[in-house]
Amino acid sequence: MPALSHPTDDHGDQGGAADPVADAAALLHPRARPARRIGLGAAIVLVVLAVGVSAWWSATSSGGGAHGTVTVGVASDEPVALAAEPPLLVHVLGAVARPGLVELAAGSRAVDAIAAAGGLAADADPAGVNLARPVTDGEQLRVPKVGEVVEASGAGGGAAAGGGAGDGLVHLNTADVAALDTLPRIGLALAQRIIDYREANGPFASVDQLGDVAGIGDAILSGLDGLVAL
């Protein structure tokens, strides 16, 4: 029988000569495909990590904002702390250790004003002052000596102290700053000097003694004729 012919194998027999180009393509082709698979997997992992980091950062930022809100709330309390009442300015004179102006906290009483002026003098008459009464801003508080009768005076109490017996004259030994300030050419500064002189030297013995007060000359003194008395 004639011998059967077999189709020629594209790759040849094992014993045949190998095609170097085909062998090289066979070696390179399987390696290229896994490399692409590995690159795609790494990209997916990176995307997942990026999403996770973004979510964590958003949560952290939201938490920081909450803390910031608390800080602002604390700062808003500061104006409330600053809303304090203004101090009182009281003029304490008479039988106290240090006559003059004293600054007191709101709600203070006469006893606080006297304490701020150094306390009662040795010849003071505590019964002549209501130590428990509240004082007001701009008030003049006089502490009498034992046996001395003083007209009550308060905030703007110049009329009571300066009016005396109602004769329309300003009485030098009892008048306060407000009463003395009503006299011609006697302002607040000179009125305070008159009171300081009186506290340091005792009651005036005569109207002419006003000339001993610094700043009061003959011209001012002559203008007070008929307006003042002891």
UniProtKB/TrEMBL annotation:
GO terms for cellular component: type II protein secretion system complex. GO terms for biological process: protein secretion by the type II secretion system. InterPro entries: Endo/Exo/Phosphatase_dom_1, RuvA_2-like, Soluble_ligand-bd. The chain crosses the membrane at residues 38-57. Keywords: Membrane, Transmembrane, Transmembrane helix. Gene3D superfamilies: AF1531-like domain (1.10.150.280), Outer membrane lipoprotein wza domain like (3.10.560.10). Residues 90-143 form the Soluble ligand binding domain. PANTHER family: ENDONUCLEASE/EXONUCLEASE/PHOSPHATASE FAMILY DOMAIN-CONTAINING PROTEIN 1, ENDONUCLEASE_EXONUCLEASE_PHOSPHATASE FAMILY DOMAIN-CONTAINING PROTEIN 1. This is Soluble ligand binding domain-containing protein. It comes from Agromyces seonyuensis. The lineage of its organism: Bacteria, Bacillati, Actinomycetota, Actinomycetes, Micrococcales.
